[in-house]
Amino acid sequence: MYLKNAWYVAGWERDLDDGLLARTICEEPIVLFRCENGKVGALEDRCCHRSAPLSFGRLKNNEVECGYHGLRFDKTGQCTAIPTQNLVPPGARVRSYPALIKNRWIWVWMGDVNKADKEQIPNYFFLDSPEWATIEDYFYIECNYQAYIDIQLDQSHSPFVHPDTLGNPAKLKVKPKVTREERALRCERLFPDDIPPPLWAEAAKIEGKGDSWNRWIYNPPATIMFDVGAAQSGTGAFEGNFDHSIRIHNAHAITPETATTTHHFWSSARDFGIGDPQTEKEVSIIRKVFREDVAICEAQQRTINKFPGAPQIDVAMDHPTIQARNLLEKLIKEETQNL
Amino acid sequence: MYLKNAWYVAGWERDLDDGLLARTICEEPIVLFRCENGKVGALEDRCCHRSAPLSFGRLKNNEVECGYHGLRFDKTGQCTAIPTQNLVPPGARVRSYPALIKNRWIWVWMGDVNKADKEQIPNYFFLDSPEWATIEDYFYIECNYQAYIDIQLDQSHSPFVHPDTLGNPAKLKVKPKVTREERALRCERLFPDDIPPPLWAEAAKIEGKGDSWNRWIYNPPATIMFDVGAAQSGTGAFEGNFDHSIRIHNAHAITPETATTTHHFWSSARDFGIGDPQTEKEVSIIRKVFREDVAICEAQQRTINKFPGAPQIDVAMDHPTIQARNLLEKLIKEETQNL
Amino acid sequence: MYLKNAWYVAGWERDLDDGLLARTICEEPIVLFRCENGKVGALEDRCCHRSAPLSFGRLKNNEVECGYHGLRFDKTGQCTAIPTQNLVPPGARVRSYPALIKNRWIWVWMGDVNKADKEQIPNYFFLDSPEWATIEDYFYIECNYQAYIDIQLDQSHSPFVHPDTLGNPAKLKVKPKVTREERALRCERLFPDDIPPPLWAEAAKIEGKGDSWNRWIYNPPATIMFDVGAAQSGTGAFEGNFDHSIRIHNAHAITPETATTTHHFWSSARDFGIGDPQTEKEVSIIRKVFREDVAICEAQQRTINKFPGAPQIDVAMDHPTIQARNLLEKLIKEETQNL
Fold it and tell me: What is the CATH number of domain C125-337?
């Protein structure tokens, strides 16, 4: 069960550089391409004639030519040409999906075309801002997307999944403050008068103690902005003055492929040490951290497969992830009832 | 659903040189072997005792000895010996299939033994004639056999699947003429006063224009003879005078292994340039052409798997393949009703 | 369907040297570990919180710490700690299995804890006796465990599966004598005044003819002791005087993983040529013999998968394996009726 009236990230803009891109989202195979005017086409990846995948064909004049018998389809899914005959029968068309590029990500709307609302796309400005430097990648993950969202929203796993990288049991004593909005969940943990890590202290020129924080915003179904940073104590960073701070904004697009496979497009952006190889090297440990998330979530999925229907108990530290799942469940329920 | 009262090609004769050959046809595992008198044995590939595959055993004195407990079976499937006991119980036997060699192919009859009719085997004389030189191979293909028969009977895919090898959109303007017989479908396209390819013109000593053609005969369920050629214009090749012509006869045995896997035994025979390395090199492009067929059909199968039950629309150029499928469907229906 | 109130071998004791051992038995994933007092813990390999496999975690102070959120479980399966909260809810526990080490094998009881009876574990003393030298290994086998037990209890396959190693058709003429006990099956074949193999004759200092034997004891569900040996003729070896004999005791633990996969822990122990490299080399042919068993049983399983429900005929030499299957079936039936 997926939320259909929603935007999902289908890839990085650059994934369209080579022509046709095949990607399955919410169990629906899609072929994506970029037209000369910069607009993005997204069609059902199956020719309506003999079921060849359109992604096996060619991009020609902003249309997709099937690689089997040469039928052509425009960006709306309409068949525009059939070789060896002049007439195109009226039923010759494939489904098209609203799609666009924003902040260097390809976004696809999986539901009712008439409800596609660009305003629902989160603003991940730091993905394509010259004031932010990014480390970024794509992981293909063999687990359910909600389980993988869980781990991004849950800090309590850190000492156990990341003992040699992030692990910091002390910080877990600060309880997360969770706020629910109509289509978002926010979480905040503030650490005033904290001793920041040396890298951060140096980058932010913090002398002595600092104010540090981590916050996230989850936009259901499947994107997260994770914000961590530190500032000289008492310079107002908690209230929005970032003049004496350094910040890292992580963007996660966690797009379901199937019930047990997931696309993870991620970027870790920073507003300090831009162009500095030493900083780049130090922050790139995030890649190892994310790989540790992948390992435990894939192991968890394999175990769930072996114990179908086994119950799970909840503990106190689960409340942010439970709230996130509840919010998504509510949206899916509303969508299903409105059908 | 397969046509059972029919001959299927199980392999090249030479596949029997090393003893026992295991091959699954119409989802039935079979072990094949050659007796000293040249006759071919074909047995169910499962010992009736403890279900070991007989193909794991040994060929001994024209019988198959099971590799587990040494039970022996003759060409009729009768168990002839059980070690450590003298009596062979009456039920100790495995199914046998009529089988024979013709034109260097092993043919197996999958249905009612009493209906096995050797006259139904097509005459592919050019597979073992000294007047014809062949290029030949075996492909294992991950798609349904009917979809793979389709591509052999359909020329309209050529400009899109073979753009760098065969692709010739101009010839598609000549409509195929299809003739249906009781157990065959014929198709013909004639191109009088055509400019032949340089290789053909030279081989057939054509000066100026030529008469060229392509024809196929489909013998359901699963073999095709494809005939292409060219002759000096007006020398009567269309009427059967091949004195001033060159010809290529392709034989395709497209044997179903399972619903989504297929054996393709093929030969491309020519009556010109026999023993000439340059001609051999030029005609061997056919291997690349067939590999292109395989790639699109396997991609098509994967997409069909992802969209179970999705409808397909037909277009005008499909009529030869639709007629072929209709003929096979009719034969299967008749066979089922007669049970 | 498995016998649950029974001990199964889960591994070699040394498999616990590196911490947590994951092993699936009777389709139940289990994590095994050794406590400082030498006792063995065996827990359901799934955290009751978020279903991460406990085997992905760490062994800490005789407890298992989950590798996801750090929940701890003691040897009884009770959750003893949850990070970031003080209270452990009463339902926070996982299933535990009785487990112990005996004769260097880890034994696990898969059924009702109250019925676990250590007396049921066979005494394979030769696995850890200084008077016996062993060759031993672990095979992971892709077939049903009962089919693999069959081949160990059946000597009639020898000339066909082991033609170049053991194969000795002559000995098959001596019929096996089978004796059934409440929870064991015994089989014996005696060969008085036999010519022993040269290796044995030399090791046992047999001059001329010897008395030799093979015997096995099957303890259902899944362990076998196989005893072969030879002695100077007439020195009373058949009656238990082994002063003039050499003996080989093979122990087989054939533990079902799933319906079509099996763990095989085995040891071949001898009471002669201990520490002698030449003897070690000659007896190590047993590894090749066992590999031949694996090959035929895996081929058999693949064929059974292809012919679901196909009947099998029995022959006279099957009676030991049929009796073994009947005994296990009876025990399973009794267990099921007592539920």
Answer: 3.90.380.10
